[in-house]
Amino acid sequence: MSKTETKKIKIQLKRSLIGCSPAQRKVVAALGLKKTNSIVEQNDTPIIKGMINKVSHLVEVIE
């Protein structure tokens, strides 16, 4: 991999946000997820990993 290439990960929202705290809703929105079963592709950075860790019960990482 060259310096310009960054590793990407796909994140899927598997569970509904009903009953979640406002902070968890904001994290899911910041990841770019809107609806259940929607999939986004993000760069694999420590910031994104931390966000996934906060809402790990709601999302699934697709390798």
Give a short summary of the structure.
The chain has helices at 22-31, 46-54; strands spanning 8-13, 39-43, 59-62. The chain has 63 residues and is an alpha+beta fold.
Structure description:
The chain contains two helices and three strands; from the N terminus they run βαβαβ. It has 63 residues and is α+β, with helices and mostly antiparallel strands. A three-stranded antiparallel β-sheet has the order 2-1-3, with no helix packed on it. The protein is elongated, with a radius of gyration of 12 Å. The two termini are 17 Å apart. The model has no long low-confidence stretch (mean pLDDT 94).
DSSP summary: helix tally: 2
Instruction: Measure the end-to-end span.
Output: 17 Å
- Basic shape: elongated
Number of E strands: 3
- Tell me, rounded to a whole number, the average pLDDT: 94
Q: Which key features would you list for this structure?
A:
single chain; 63 residues; alpha+beta; 3-stranded antiparallel sheet; 2 helices
